[in-house]
Amino acid sequence: MEYNSTRSRMNISEYGRNIQKMIEYIMSVKDREKRNHLARATINVMGQLNPHLRDVNDFKHKLWDHLFIMSDFKLDVDSPYPIPSPETLTRKPEPLQYATNNVTFKHYGRHIERIIEKACELEEGHMKDTLIQLIANHLKKSYLTWNRDSVTDEEIAEHLSKLSDGKLSLQDDVKLHDTNDILSKNKKKKQHGKQAGGKNYTYKSRKSQ
Q1: How far apart are CA 29 and CA 100, in angstroms?
Q2: pLDDT, tens digit, for every residue of 78-103?
Q3: Which of 84, 107, 143, 158 could form a Cys-Cys staple with 88, CB 3.0–4.6 A?
Q4: Is-contact 164 116, C-beta < 8 A?
Q5: What sign results for the dihedral spanned by CA atoms 68, 73, 78, 80?
Q6: Cα–Cα distance measured from residue 127 to residue 206, given in angstroms and rounded to the nearest whole number
Q7: Distance of alpha carbon 32 from alpha carbon 165, whole angstroms
């Protein structure tokens, strides 16, 4: 009887002990051409055991990498892909580069600033004026969503001017959405969210049925 403590270590246990034994057998074969043939056959079996890898880009490349990893990088066969090294398992990933630019108004977010940047590039005309009005209404809605204090159209116009470095201005005759209407809609959304999140069950005892 074999015990796990006496068996060879499996670097990737998801493939199972039989695949591990197949790889160990391939390593013992002296004929290189036969080793290559057995390695390709093992790759096909590994693919059948893990069909979810077919959804991964270059899944064949992934299977070959796993083959070498499971052999402790000792398998000497011809791979159609660059053979990985042991350092690939211990190498630390490159640190993520986070955006360093500061958001002027956090309650508006970075996306609206990008939209404003594109709006500044538009030629003067009806389309640009319409977009400015849409942006201003969005600013007002976002402000009232994240702030308890009320806000005037003049304040929104000032924020728009600041976010666009003075390139966009709200026309004097433009009327933004009413503050009370926005607050009322926000309140209804919160109430609807609470009702959708809660579950009401009615229990009946067997005696009452």
Answers
A1: 56
A2: 999 999 888 877 777 777 776 555 66
A3: 84
A4: yes
A5: positive
A6: 67
A7: 69
